């Protein structure tokens, strides 16, 4: 049980800020390590695309179910215990994902993996809100930048190991060593408490929290669309060689990471409202360019603008959740994290459904209009 005296007498400082950054890195590296393993799991279990897609939903279900629970547990037992538990779940699941071949075992491993990711993601965002508020500084973009950096390191590292002939199991064990070393560095300064909560253990988001969550949903929807459809669009609509179609997402991820790592200074200079407004308009303009420019080179510029525009919107929205008083942050932070994940999960299906009824260009154009709505929402929110 959390010691309330410790909570009131202890103010998070630089060590807690560093531990938060490391925890975000763990979350990013953990989820990205799975991506290069997907083809191996598909081949090992003899799955077709449809069955694989259904199995991957287990990861999302595990994440979404774990997120609100993580907020409840962090309030009761502290961020440290919950984040450590979530990281250990990731480390347990990764070797299973690299070795199991039966569908029931894959379902269980993916659910465990998703639950671990959701637990860590929700808890570190809750800690980030507390630590940023205690510092009196703008830190959230830098925190999220470490998630993006972890994603690049995780995906590139596992891909490199596999390319060197290391087995999937061997690659996941290397990842686990890295994650556990990072956890040992972060754990002593993860918060031994969570947010104080006088409200219910769980509540449906409402009011300003629902508004912020809706904006997060749209931004993550755009991120999911870039992740899952940019390569298809470039190959199908712009005739780029399939081997290079991934450059669209690479451009998006690069500017997203750079934008977040430099985002704290940008937010301090421009202010949160302008970051959302300009970011939303930049992202919308980038997606329009990527969709309707006739050359694939200009499309890459468009995806880069999309990443730059989206990069600091969500961090600013998390800061806004820490300032609102409609819902306890121990409930509000997991709620908008869950809505964000729902956007990433729904993105591919929504884009595919719209594209099936019209075209991929129309679906991306509609997505750009929603990003304009985010910019307008930033003006209304006035964070």
UniProtKB/TrEMBL annotation:
Record InterPro entries: MFS (IPR011701), MFS_dom (IPR020846), MFS_trans_sf (IPR036259), MFS_Transporter (IPR051788)
Residue span(s) of domain Major facilitator superfamily (MFS) profile: 208-383
Molecular function (Gene Ontology), one example: transmembrane transporter activity
Subcellular location: Membrane
UniProt cross-references to PROSITE patterns, sorted A to Z: MFS (PS50850)
Keyword vocabulary terms for this entry: Membrane, Transmembrane, Transmembrane helix
Name assigned to this protein: MFS transporter
């Amino acid at each position: 049980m959390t010691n309330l005296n410790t909570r009131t007498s202890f103010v998070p400082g630089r060590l807690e800020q560093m531990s938060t950054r490391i925890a975000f890195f763990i979350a990013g590296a953990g989820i990205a390590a799975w991506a290069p393993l997907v083809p191996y799991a598909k081949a090992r279990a003899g799955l077709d695309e449809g069955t694989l897609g259904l199995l991957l939903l287990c990861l999302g279900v595990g994440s979404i179910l774990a997120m609100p629970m993580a907020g409840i547990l962090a309030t009761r037992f502290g961020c440290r215990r919950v984040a450590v538990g979530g990281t250990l779940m990731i480390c347990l699941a990764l070797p299973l994902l690299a070795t199991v071949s039966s569908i029931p075992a894959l379902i269980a491993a993916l659910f465990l993996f998703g639950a671990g990711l959701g637990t860590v993601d929700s808890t570190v965002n809750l800690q980030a809100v507390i630590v940023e508020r205690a510092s009196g500084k703008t830190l959230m973009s830098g925190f999220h930048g470490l998630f993006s950096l972890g994603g690049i390191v995780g995906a590139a590292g596992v891909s490199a190991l596999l390319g060197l002939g290391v087995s999937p199991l061997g690659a996941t064990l290397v990842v686990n060593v890295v994650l556990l070393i990072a956890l040992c560095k972060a754990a002593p300064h993860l918060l031994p408490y969570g947010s104080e909560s006088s409200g219910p253990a769980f509540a449906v988001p409402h009011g300003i929290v629902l508004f912020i969550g809706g904006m997060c949903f749209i931004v993550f929807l755009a991120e999911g669309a870039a992740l899952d459809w940019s390569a298809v669009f470039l190959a199908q609509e712009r005739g780029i060689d399939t081997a290079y179609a991934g450059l669209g997402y690479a451009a998006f991820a690069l500017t997203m990471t750079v934008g977040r790592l430099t985002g704290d200074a940008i937010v301090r200079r421009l202010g949160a409202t302008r970051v959302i407004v300009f970011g939303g308009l930049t992202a919308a303009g980038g997606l329009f360019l990527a969709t309707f420019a006739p050359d694939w080179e200009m499309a890459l510029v468009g995806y880069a603008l999309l990443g730059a525009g989206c990069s600091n919107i969500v961090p600013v929205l998390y800061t806004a959740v820490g300032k609102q008083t409609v819902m306890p942050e121990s409930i509000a932070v997991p709620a908008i994290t869950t809505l964000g994940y729902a956007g990433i999960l729904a993105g591919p299906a929504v884009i595919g459904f719209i594209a099936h009824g019209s075209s991929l260009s129309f679906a991306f154009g509609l997505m750009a209009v929603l990003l304009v709505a985010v910019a307008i929402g930033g003006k209304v929110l006035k964070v």
